[in-house]
Amino acid sequence: MRMCWNWMPCAVAMTVVGCTTPKFTDYERLQLPSKAGSEKQSVVFSNFSANPLVQNGQAYEQVRLKLPEGVKTMTVPTGTVVAPSERDEVVIYLKKSLGWMGHPDGPVSILTEKKGMGAGVLVHRTTLRFTLFGGSSSFEGGSSVSAVVLVPPSVRVKTYEKRPFDDEAEYQAQGWYTLSTVPDADKTFLKYTRKP
Predict the structure, then answer these.
(1) Rounded mean pLDDT of the chain?
(2) pTM of the model as a whole
(3) From residue 100, how far is each of 16, 63, 108, 164, 191 by CA, in Å?
(4) pLDDT tens, 57-76?
(5) Is 7 exposed, middle or buried (0-12, 13-18, 19+ CB in 10 A)?
(6) How far apart are CA 70 and CA 181, in angstroms?
């Protein structure tokens, strides 16, 4: 009887330790090669500006990911357009926009502002979390990033209310991995967001 009582706590301790989920760290291997288009063709400039120093417009980018083993769910921010993927991979199309009517001391362009906007992922158990970062807003306008995400039918998608992180450092501090996107000269984002 005494042996039984001494053994039980050890068994419980072993069970608890064995159930601990290891932290996912192999993010670089998730990214699949994406054909980079011409940066010039992936950017659309706008003539809408209150100052000749400001070059507003949109930049279109893309990235492909393989699903981490065991992932069954993907979470995306509210407002993300979700469509089925024809392959067993996740494809993300971004639109980075600058529409600012301010009066800066020096040049401001979508070509430079787009570098401060992007997307990231975080794997938690059986869930692949997706987020956006960057962008700004004021009474003079600002910048923003939007996404279209193609997801395999085997993966359930959930949305969550989350504002984009203000900058990359803010969300990297929480463990998010920044995706390396490439220019999308075909502007595929528009294919899924244009109204008929």
Answers:
(1) 85
(2) 0.83
(3) 54, 27, 9, 18, 25
(4) 999 999 999 998 999 999 99
(5) exposed
(6) 24
What's the total number of domains in the chain? 1
Instruction: Report yes or no on 114 lying in a domain.
Output: yes
CB 102 within 8 A of CB 140: yes
Beta strands in the chain, from DSSP E residues, in sequence order = 31-32, 43-45, 54-55, 57-66, 73-77, 81-84, 89-100, 108-109, 118-124, 127-133, 136-138, 141-151, 156-160, 177-178, 182-183
User: What does each C-alpha distance from 66 to 96, 117, 149 come to in angstroms?
Assistant: 23, 22, 13
Residue 27 forms part of a structural domain:
no
User: Does residue 9 form part of some domain?
Assistant: no
Q: Which residues contact 149 (CB under 8 A, 6 or more apart)?
A: 74, 76, 80, 81, 82, 83, 90, 91, 92, 93, 130, 157
- The parent domain of residue 127 ranges over 35-191
Q: What angle do CA 38, 40, 42 make, to 5 degrees?
A: 70
Beta strands at 127-133 and 118-124: parallel, antiparallel or unpaired: antiparallel
Q: Is residue 13 part of a domain?
A: no
- pLDDT tens-digit series, residues 109-154: 999 999 999 999 999 999 999 999 888 878 777 899 999 999 999 9
d(CA 170, CA 66): 25
